[in-house]
Write a structure and sequence with these properties.
Elements: H1 6-29, H2 38-52, H3 54-70, H4 77-85
């Protein structure tokens, strides 16, 4: 028996390997992507600041406790209402 075109088998196998490599490269090239909004980044900064600098927060709490105990704490309802409706963080539309 005579076998011809042995080279074609090698070429076909090389082609199949190349296609498998291309398919795996495409799968590797597609990666999940995450984009964090500016608002979320700002909130994260505030949160990190509170965590990394608890002394400033505790000083404020102590000062407010003293004002409440002394009866000198003044609630500015108008300022609170404005901040509730138009927060500086940009979460809500103005």
């Amino acid at each position: 028996m005579k076998i011809n075109d042995v080279g074609r088998i090698g070429a076909i196998q090389a082609y199949q390997k190349t296609n498998k490599t291309k398919a795996s490269n495409k799968a590797e090239a597609k990666r999940d992507e995450l984009q964090i909004s500016k608002t979320a980044q700002e909130l994260l900064k505030v949160q990190k600041n509170d965590i990394l600098n608890p002394a400033a927060r505790s000083e404020k709490v102590e000062r407010l406790k003293e004002q409440v105990d002394n009866g000198t704490y003044n609630v500015e309802s108008k300022a609170i209402a404005e901040k509730m409706l138009k927060p500086k963080t940009g979460i809500f539309y103005e």
